[in-house]
Amino acid sequence: MREFFRTKTFLFLLVAALISLSVFFYTAFTNGNISATSNAAGVIITPIQNGTTGVAGFFGNIYGYLYRYNALKAENEKLKSELRETKDKLRDAEEIQDENEHLRDLLGLKQKNKSFDFEMAEIIAVNIGNWSNVFTIDKGSLSGLKQNDCVITEDGMVGYISEVGSTFSEVVTVIDPSMQAGAIVSRTRDVAVAQGAFDLMEQGKLKLSYIKKDNDIIAGDIIETSGLGGVFPKGVPIGTVEKIVPESHGISNYAIIKPTVDLNNISKVFVIKSFKITG
Amino acid sequence: MRYTRENYIKWAAYGMLLLVLFLIETAYRFKLTVLGVRPDIIPFFIAALALYEGPGCAAVIGFISGLLCDFVQPGLDGFLPLFYTAAGLGIGFVSEKYFRKNIFSALLLGASASVLLNLLRFIFYYALLFNASVLTGVKITFSELLLSLLFSPVVYYGVRLINRHFDDEEE
Asked: How much is the mean pLDDT over chain A?
């Protein structure tokens, strides 16, 4: 073991440990931007993850076709000759349709929220482990994204950008324990805070905290962003109330919220790069 | 750890294995999830590597693994490279003296590294900053560990295959 400390390997490890410690303290005392090492790793790895996502999607599609094979067989026979002729056109049409749907959603969102400036992005990776609910998208500062930009789909809020790299960003979802957003109950206009919680994350839910005892919030109420503070835009749906539960200290209640966005079934998201503050 | 051409190729092979494991773990459309829990097999990879290649190689690959994992992980950058480097070194030194090169040793050492990593994460990050309860910490740590143990033999045999292939060539 004493010989090991005289080797080049040990020297390398010493340098590696120093780099790790420098990065550790750098990120501990700076906020928002990813460290240079992570950024470099990200810039290299993001295109590979993009490719993996594509390949996984391809195999996912094949699985889908096989699964529905029996049900589609009869119909498939009938349409076979017609399909052969139009196969290439259909493939093109499907791609266009998919793109069209997203653009239509974007247009709908834009019509509802004229001040929003969107950037469309694709999810390319998820975090490792079970302590958080974070994913990586394929757009970063080069596309004009910034820390705390709100990430949505046509159904509502997905989360917000926690860290930005050049060509990728980390998105903290609404159910992650580190997420907090000013919220308002759509029907009663009561103001509260929507936040992730460890106990609810595994169920895919979050909580609405600081609800006064006398507030008239009921199951089914829609919760949306309040826009207070100017970090997130106002009126983006977060979720619907499932249940009201008294806090352990007994002073206030909290509500369990089911997100309006199905976080397990999204692939494309919109990032709100800028909006008019109306809070 | 000798700096021969064969060794460089072997490390490249380990690097490729690490990249494949990382891409599988982080692929969005191909989520490895059982009852909402996802495995983390990187600690088992480092343990198997330390068992077969010793502390030097395991620490170097551990450092690279940490950098890769930091990129998709929220929180402080730098912690995972530090942890995996130390884990590679520690497991390497311990296994040289006290463990045989077999799957049980690899699983035991990998499980220890996994539990220690989650414990450190829980105490110094999630409990401190987010008031995570001990019960939640235990639940996350052990459900992840059980699932990771299911997948870890594949990692062990992958490392063993590379090690044996290149060691045979050297002989």
From this structure: 83
To the nearest whole Å, the CA of A189 is away from the closest chain B CA by: 28
Query: What gap in Å lies between CA B113 and CA B86, rounded to an integer?
Result: 10
Is B110 touching A (CB cutoff 8 A)?
no
Q: What is the ipTM of this complex?
A: 0.79
Please give the CATH architecture assigned to the domain spanning B5-170. Orthogonal Bundle (1.10)
In order of A63, A72, B76, the CA distances from A66 in angstroms are 5, 10, 43
How far is the alpha carbon of B122 from chain A, nearest alpha carbon, in Å?
Answer: 9
R_g of chain B, CA atoms, integer Å:
16
Instruction: Return the pLDDT at B86.
Output: 95
Q: Which two tokens stand for residue B77?
A: 């950058």
Domain layout of chain B by residue ranges: 5-170
User: What is the rounded average pLDDT of the residues B76-100?
Assistant: 90
Does the reported pTM lie above 0.90?
A: no
pLDDT of residue A199 exceeding 60: yes
- Alpha-carbon gap: A79 to the closest alpha carbon of chain B (Å): 30
Among A24, A130, A203, beta carbon nearest to B78: A24
User: Which of B72, B82, B144 is opposite residue A20, by nearest beta carbon?
Assistant: B82
